[in-house]
C-alpha cells in the first residue's frame, strides 16, 4: 500500500506536554511500534537503537542485553529520549524524554523479554536468546511526553522579527 501525499503544515503539539503516558502516546506504546531509543556514549556522542517498548505501570519498559552499548551508556548516564513516527504520516510523531530508574536483571527481565516477544512476534518465548546472554529490563520514568504534527518551527528569537517560523 502506498500512502497518499503528506502535507506538512506548521507544527502543533497534540495534547499536553508533560510526564504522563496518556491517550495517543499510551496507544502507541501498547501497539507493536518500534521506538528509537537515544542514549549518550562515554565520549558524549549520541547512540540510537530501534527498540521494542511497552508500558509497565507508569513507566516505559524496554529490554536489552547486559553488555550492549546502550546498557553501558545508561548505567553511566540514565537519561534517554524515545521517538516514534506514524508509518502513514512521518510528520505525526511522539517523543518521550525520561530517566531509567530501575535496571531489573534475572528472571523478571527474562519474563519481560518473553512478554515483548509475545507482543511483537506472537512467540511465547524470546527466540533469539544466545547461550550465556543475560537480559536487563529498563524502566524509564517519563519526564517530558509530547506528540507533534507538522514541521517543527524555529524557537522564538531565531528568525528575524516578522519571519514565519
From TrEMBL:
Signal peptide: none
GO cellular component, one term: cytosol
Matching InterPro entries: F420-binding_dom_put (IPR019920), F420H2_bilvrd_red/Heme_oxyg (IPR052019), Pyridox_Oxase_N (IPR011576), Split_barrel_FMN-bd (IPR012349)
Domain Pyridoxamine 5'-phosphate oxidase N-terminal: 23-146
GO molecular function, one term: coenzyme F420 binding
Entries under Pfam families matching the protein: PNPOx_N
Keywords: Oxidoreductase
Name of the protein described by the UniProt record: PPOX class probable F420-dependent enzyme
Amino acid at each position: 500500500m502506498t500512502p497518499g501525499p503528506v502535507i506538512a503544515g506548521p507544527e502543533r503539539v497534540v495534547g499536553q506536554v508533560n510526564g504522563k503516558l496518556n491517550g495517543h502516546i499510551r496507544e502507541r506504546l501498547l501497539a507493536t511500534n518500534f521506538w528509537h531509543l537515544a542514549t549518550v556514549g562515554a565520549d558524549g556522542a549520541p547512540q540510537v537503537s530501534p527498540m521494542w517498548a511497552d508500558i509497565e505501570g507508569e513507566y516505559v519498559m524496554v529490554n536489552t542485553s547486559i553488555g550492549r552499548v546502550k546498557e553501558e551508556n545508561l548505567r553511566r548516564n540514565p537519561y534517554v529520549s524515545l521517538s516514534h513516527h506514524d508509518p502513514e504520516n512521518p510528520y505525526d510523531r511522539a517523543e518521550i524524554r525520561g530517566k531509567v530508574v530501575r535496571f531489573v536483571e534475572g528472571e523478571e527481565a527474562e519474563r519481560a523479554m518473553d512478554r515483548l516477544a509475545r507482543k511483537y512476534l506472537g512467540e511465547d518465548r524470546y527466540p533469539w536468546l544466545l547461550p550465556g546472554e543475560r537480559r536487563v529490563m529498563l524502566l524509564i520514568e517519563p519526564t517530558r511526553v509530547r506528540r507533534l504534527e507538522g514541521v517543527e518551527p524555529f524557537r522564538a528569537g531565531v528568525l528575524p522579527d516578522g519571519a514565519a517560523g
